Amino acid sequence: MHICFATRLTEHLGIQLLSAICKEAGHRVSHVFDPGLESAGVLPGSWLPAWLNTDEQTVQAILDSGAKIVGMNVEINTFSWTVELAQKLKAANPNLLVAVGGVHATTVPAVVMDFPCFDYLCVGEGDEALPELLARLDAGSPTLDIPNIWARADDGTVVQNPVRPLLKSLDDLPFFDKSIHYDLVPEMSHEYHTNTSRGCVYSCSFCFYQPIQQVYGGRFRNMRSPENVCRELEQAVAQYPSIRTVTFHDEVFTANKRWLREFAALWPERVGLPFSVITHPDLVDEEAAALLGQAGCAHCIMGTQTVNQASRDMLARTETSEDVRRAVTELRRHGIWTVVDHILGIPGETAQDQDDALLFYSEIKPDVIKAFFLTYLPGTDMNQVGIDAGTWTLDKLKEAERGHIDSWLFKGVGDMPEWRSYYQLYTLFTVVPPELMHFAVRHKLHRAMKLMDGLWLPSIFLIPRVAQSLIGGREEQPRSYLNYLKGLFRYAAEVRFADRPVATRAVKAAMRPSRRFRWRGTPFSTPRGPG
Ligand code: B12
Ligand code: SF4
């Protein structure tokens, strides 16, 4: 069977894995990557995003691939795009089959299948379901009874099938097929995205994992072996020497100590690249931080979200402020760049809660505070909390289920004006000495930030980090991000001007890094020391 995947804006691990699985099963795989710059939500005005829109080229490229079935991922932010694309494809070729899967498809499958442009929807893991679907299509067998797959019957009704058990042996899966993205935008390879596990041992009330856990009847976390992870990276580095840093997208990287010990013993010898992880403050004690440091972890993100205990209870967060203090202190002691996520707009929180948080952060000194505005993701308990508190409505939830969510994170305004000045303060934390921040909050000087409300620019969130990264030289992620953007713009120009080769060549030349602006030295060359 010939399947054509379509992705937009960034690489996609799920699609890369499915591509590898389908190739391994002997299917023909094509891939169309839409640069999707217009979807990033940070471009000003309407003419520039409209001009950058390459949907037409994407539809044409999928049709030209000659595939029999198209595979797309539906997350909340890509839902509308996927629907539009599928509708255009069906209009051009009604026989072309369209299959979707992913987090949002799993969260609200009935809402997604309400759109007749979709023939199949995968609930949960697609690693076994998709090859089974393709094999059945190849053989001309019925496709209405495949576990995990919701299928549209000839009369238009949707047949729902149960989910199969979660895959336990993730080591049996092939490695991510990076070629589908790296061959088009080589700049993406500087930051290698991967994961070592699936699932989370927590169930926070605002998190997309809640509906996923409901599908599978409770919390789960399945892991790849450290050996398998190292082998993936050895192969990847051999194929793409441009890889400079690795980002692990596991939800709680440090959840299993035995695993972490084994990983810390293997990684420096076998791979040795600096890497970034995400975890939970409860899971960082002295030993975990030491193991991360020993393995070469450069960057660790943790959710702290709030310092108000009542809010923590509402969010089903299990950590205390002391846990956060310990985790940040230990990580910094081992020279790890520490980022904490903080949520603004939790129902019931006041300016005093933000002042308390700023004072707390000034004391424990994380390197970065990443502030987010609370997003009411479909399928989570947070929706009812918000509805009860009057900060969210059923109508907005219905809209969100259909992919229209006014979240700054997913494109849209979505910011909460009353929290803008605090948002700016959290952003500035990276470049302002904590002592100064502490002094400003103690003397209420920080409230002068209100004067900057009119200058609100959502996209400034990276500016202090980029500045810090370029000047301080410690953090690689903003540099990788800039590099990726550069590649994306070049690729977008190639797609946009495909019929005008001279213009494409000119853009390519302009995007080539000049000697003057080439990034300096090796990342993370600053000696590690107690923080
Ligand atoms: C890695 C990651 C990224 C990476 C890479 C993108 C990616 N998804 O791989 C980066 C950093 C680029 C990224 C960016 C973003 N991300 Co992201 N990302 C993740 C993360 C942490 C892990 C994804 C992963 O590795 N999954 C492992 C693979 C194997 O699983 P999978 O993708 O779900 O695919 C499996 C099944 O779902 C299914 N499947 C998936 N697609 C399809 C398609 C078909 C046809 C079939 C049959 C099956 C199928 O089969 C796959 C194999 O089993 C998830 C959280 C999570 N744990 O899922 C968030 C997550 C998916 N991201 C999210 C968001 C919001 C974003 C951003 C909008 C953030 C932002 N503001 O920039 C952008 C959007 C990017 C875009 N292209 O539009 C949200 C989506 C929310 C939602 N409810 O829909 C999530 C759930 C995180 C969250 N906090 O809620 N992300
Ligand atoms: S710890 Fe993180 S990934 Fe796990 S449930 Fe909470 S927010 Fe979600």
Largest sheet, if any?
Answer: 7 strands, mixed
Strand order, sheet with most strands:
2-1-3-4-5-6-7
Mean pLDDT, nearest integer? 89
What ligands are attached or bound here?
cobalamin, iron/sulfur cluster
The residue fraction in helices comes out at: 40-55%
Broad structural category: alpha/beta
- Stated plainly, the CATH topology of the largest domain is called pyruvate-formate lyase- activating enzyme
Distance between the termini: 55 Å
Low-confidence stretches: 514-531
Tally the structural domains: 2
What is the general shape? Answer: globular
Could you tell me the number of beta strands? Answer: 15
Count up the helices. 22
Instruction: Please tell me how large the radius of gyration is.
Output: 23 Å
Note the quaternary state here: single chain
Task: Explain the overall architecture.
- The structure is a single chain.
- The chain has 531 residues and is an alpha/beta fold.
- It contains 22 helices and 15 strands.
- Helix 1 (13-24) links the parallel strand 1 (2-8) and strand 2 (28-34).
- The chain is globular.
- The protein binds cobalamin and iron/sulfur cluster (SF4).
- Iron/sulfur cluster binds at residues 200, 202-204, 207, 209, 251-252, 280, 303.
